[in-house]
Amino acid sequence: MQPVFLLTDLFVFAILLFVIWYVWHVRSDRNLRANWRLAMCRPVAMVSSMLLGFFLLVGLADSIHFREALPAAAGQAKQFSSEANSVLDKLLHPIASAAERSYSEPLAALGFKKETFEKDGVTVRDYPRLRFGGKHLTDPAQDLAADVAAKSWFALGLGALIVLGTLLTACLLASVLTQQPMGVVFSKFKSGHTEWPWRSMAITFTVMVLAMTWVVMLSGYYHVFGTDRTGNSVLVFALKSVRTALVIGGLTTLVVLPLALFFGVTAGYLRGWVDEAIQYLYTLLASIPDVLLIAASVLLLQVFIDKNQGVFETALERADARLFFLCLILGITSFTGLCRLVRGETLKLRELEYIQSAQAFGVSTPRVLWRHIVPNLMHLVLINTVMQFSGFVLAEAVLSYVGVGVDPKTASFGVMINTARSELAVTPLVWWTLATAFVFMFLIVLSANLLADAIRDAFDPRTRLRSSNSPANPSAATDKEVAA
Amino acid sequence: MFQFLTRKLAYGLAILVGINLLTFVLFFKVNTPDDMARMQLGGKRVTPDAIEKWKAERGYDRPSFFNPQEEGLAQLTNTIFLDSSLRMFAFDFGRADSGRDIASEIVRRAGPSIALALPTFVVGLGISVVLALGLAFFRGTYLDFWGTVLCVVFMSISSLFFIVMGQFLFSRVLQLIPVSGFAPGLDAWRFLVLPVAVGILARLGSEIRFNRTLFMEEIGKDYVRTARSKGLSEARVLFSHVLRNALIPILSASVAVIPLLFMGSLITESFFAIPGLGSYLIEAIAGQDFAIVRAMVFVGSFLYIIGLILTDISYTLADPRIRLQ
């Protein structure tokens, strides 16, 4: 195997390293730790971060690319496949390779459209058997429902066993660690009187495990989310789209942060002509309608790719470069809002006594900025970052629809919705592409939004004081909403 | 006042000059007219003659900043940059690749765009203000809590889903209204009802939440407590005192958006085949017509700057404490 590092892969790893560093940093900083504890003690925050964590794992598995070694004849140099696959591709291979000829409904055993074929020597016009879905059935018309039900019960039972096992182990572990008897641990857990929202976490865990075992077990026999026009599994496409969505959200944030921080802080701290110049720059960028700037830039990239065919070796690399470029442009068009906020806050901070005393001590300007200004802006930056993330995921779908988003061959929710649009116009109706895209995208964006809300409530000084009540108390939750 | 306006206008002009320079660099330096010609004429099998002809037709065969073949001032004016820029400031955008005049096309298409965008904006603003005030009235109750949750849920649904589902439900299943298209005059309402409804719905979640936050901030202020201690009913306090004061920031923020309404909405227009500026832009992007894209960037920025100036003025009108300086 030969590892392949796409441009966006490298940045995904960079983000991962950054997150690990940040977690370590939070652990060593008392204030930060208290804030994060405040945020994560809310059940909503914990539940949504578990969901997001699952999607992150999927995205990460799809970011480790490699080229497989081809079976080489003896004495020859090792040859590698020309196609780069990811770990996720490898995991999904059984489903991805089990392609049908065309559309098929979720959990179907028969084709979606009638075809003319020969059966027992007679030419008939009927729904053909699928190549993969339900091929173990002898008479799909009769056995399908019973088979699906039996397999579902088996999968759910297995899932329940896994959940029970995990929960029991967790309770045991908790009783050993806290030196409390099992009964006390369990009753606390049941009533939700725990420091962390263990009960909500357990419920989420249960639902996630049950859903996953069900999908995994049934995927061995059926296409759980149906297949698209070319007969490929919709589930695979949706899972591959997760990475695109997360890369757009994460990488764009990575572009926005340094730009906004650097320009905002220098403009606010240095003032004078630097401030004027930076204000001019971001008014300029803000005045161009976002979509137009993105469209113009993507058109330019298209010309560049056409002109320099040799730069990118494979179609995957070309698509990846386009994704990277899209994040870059999206970041440049959307850093202005945060930049303005940072500038305003810096203007306020620089007048405070501790900054003035630092100046009086002769601390150099970069050091004042880095040691005294930037740490005090971090809550603002964090809140804005998490709030913007879901916006970027939604923007990707829109841009891809307009044709200035990701490469049409890249799996993304925008591409899915775009195909679903034409599928909804035909009879019989192909509804599952849209439904799958909807479910996945909704889950990602909703959990990102909820997590963002919890983080904002915990980190925003205006709302923090009010939310120090017990998070399990619903009136406290509404109080926080009031303050927000 | 006069001095303030001239200063703002001068700043706006400076921004427009910057925009012009930026788009020029993007469209003529990063990509040369040769690239554009090759792309328009189709791929690699284009003869140099055809490229020259294409460039000559558009005046792109001249030098970009400085023309040594001319005399005097014409050395600067007879160049791509100054010529096209000066024309742009006079709203003469030249011709599109299809041969039509871009400026008149923009004027023609602004009508349908505004017919779609204005009702969406006005009705949407009204609904979101009313609902947000309702949530504020029931603050701290389960109604408020679940209402806010519902807002987050709405915010998490891509606007594309609203469009696709709306078209499917009302046009295909119920067959109440046409799927897409446009008719001039009063007949247009049948084509506009659904896009307007979808446009409102897609933005409702975030707008209600935003307005609710504004109302909540307002409710915490001293004059509200005074009003209550006078013995006014809660409804009276909210609807006459809080609403009036909270409307100032809401309306001032809206002023910035109004000029941009002319730009139309990209997605809705192209989904519903409404011949406005949004779909014009999408067609231009699909057809890779750089002249149109550049013209639209200019018009968009122009409208944005007008919005900025209007916002400044409206703030001072709404709040006499802010002086024009």
Précis, in short:
The complex is a heterodimer of chains A (484) and B (325). Chain A has helices at 7-28, 30-40, 43-61, 87-97, 140-178, 182-191, 198-219, 234-270, 272-287, 290-307, 315-334, 336-349, 353-360, 365-402, 413-423, 432-459, 461-464, 474-483, and strands spanning 2-4, 65-69, 80-86, 115-119, 122-126.
Estimate the strand proportion of chain B.
Answer: under 5%
* Radius of gyration of chain B, whole Å: 25 Å
Structural class of chain B: mainly alpha
What is the molecular shape of chain B? globular
Q: Largest sheet of chain B, described in full? A: none
Total strands of chain B: 0
Order of helices and strands of chain B: HHHHHHHHHHHHHH
Q: Which chain pair has the greatest contact?
A: A-B, 53 and 56 residues
Q: What's the alpha carbon Rg of chain A, rounded to whole Å?
A: 27 Å
Q: How do the strands line up in the largest sheet of chain A?
A: 1-2-3
Tell me which oligomeric state these chains represent.
heterodimer
pLDDT averaged residue by residue of chain A: 83
Count of discrete alpha- or pi-helical segments spanning 4 or more residues of chain B: 14
- The succession of helices and strands of chain A, N to C, reads EHHHEEHEEHHHHHHHHHHHHHH
Low-confidence sequence ranges of chain A: 465-484
**Broad structural category of chain A:** mainly alpha
CA-CA gap between termini of chain B: 8 Å
Describe the structure.
The complex is a heterodimer of chains A (484) and B (325). Chain A is mainly alpha-helical and 484 residues long. Chain A is 70% helix and 5% strand. Chain A has 18 helices and 5 strands. In chain A, a hairpin with a 2-residue loop joins strand 4 (115-119) and strand 5. Mean pLDDT of chain A is 83; it is low at 465-484. In chain B, helix 2 crosses helix 3. With 325 residues, chain B is mostly helical. Chain B contains 14 helices and no strands. Chain B is 73% helix and 0% strand. Chain B is globular, with a radius of gyration of 25 Å. In chain B, 33% of the residues are buried. At the A-B interface, helix 9, helix 10, helix 14, helix 15 and helix 16 of A face helix 1, helix 2, helix 7, helix 8 and helix 12 of B.
